[in-house]
Amino acid sequence: MSNPSEDLYVRLRQECGRRADALWRVGLALHADPELAYEERHAARLLAGELRDAEFAVEQGVAGLDTAFVARAGRGGRTVALLMEYDALPGLGHACGHNLIAAAGLGAALAVHSVLGATGGTVLAVGAPAEERGGGKVALAEAGVFDGVDAALMFHPGVHDWSWAPLTAQTQVRVGFHGRAAHPTGDPTRGIDALAALIQLFNTAAVVSRRLPAGSHVQGIVTDGGSATNVVPAYAEGLFGLRAATTTALDALVADIGGWAEGVAAATGTTVEVTRLGRGYAHFRDNDVLSDRFSEHIARSGIRLGRPSGGVFLGSSDIGDVSIRVPAIHPFVAILGDDESDHTPAFAAAAGSDRGREVMLAAAEALACTAADVLVDAGLSARAWERLREREAAGL
What we know:
Layout lengths: L5 H13 L1 H13 L8 H13 L3 E4 L8 E7 L3 E7 L12 H19 L4 E8 L7 H7 L8 E3 L2 E3 L10 E10 L15 H15 L8 E8 L10 E10 L2 H22 L2 E11 L6 H11 L20 H5 L4 E2 L2 E3 L10 H6 L3 H23 L1 H16 L3
Parallel strand pairs: 3-4, 3-5, 5-11, 6-12
Antiparallel strand pairs: 1-2, 2-4, 7-9, 7-10, 8-9
């Protein structure tokens, strides 16, 4: 095939528009029944059922995750994955708008398959659970779901209209200090205060954080600080969330906090254990060859996407672990003003609002057109892969 035609884009948008009410019913059904990470059974059944009805071959329980699935349609040619998230937040429901992500991904997958048919390449609709906690896409990537995929596409509702997402790498580190118990007044010189050592680590992190590079961040909580005020704590433990602009920078920050902890232990007479809890999420590697194309397509709906504000980092996501493997996009499209925030009751309400519907449909259309670009235009796909390799070589 050659470059896509305007007629193809028109047909894709028409297919999404024809399904608008049905897609919105799916989005509202998820919104009304928010499910937490790894518990999204209703969402997975609903989405997989819609795809099965459209003659996608659906495999459920992928990568050992009960609520993950991969739906496949078409054959041969290049392969595009349209990603759907659907987990909610404790106490806040869909305050990150994953119901809109799921509905848009579903609509795009259905439209592309309907227009291009069985010979227009391969379309994967990937049900990815547990973005908020645990990282379903990490497990899917490690299980090989994205092997042979030429592009992974999704959008995210937000409070900015940005063509890509400045998402950091992240992980957690557990730090445990061992001291010696004693009575604080009856035998004060014998005690070695593990809690005091942990507090000193917090103080050290606060001081050093002032000179960490942009995107690096340390946030900790005390998970064990002793059990009684009349006993010098023999053990204290903290849990630290670490973020950095790149995965390489994150690894360096993990090593740094280990060094700080060892220094504190030497100064306080304690011993310390530093344990990294899993690998966390990789940073997001935007593929601007594709995100620029998405921006062009969504502009047809009157939505203009710009570049992220310098120095602003929005958090972390398991899309990072996909983006380091295959060309990927993760644009933000606003459903609230930039004086608001996601992960709030107001954002949850917006995810079920008329504006939420408008953004979902516009994103579905733009995702469908971008997916068709990859499937139809070999040159575009080649440029996207070249850009991924360039950014990898540059450590970005």
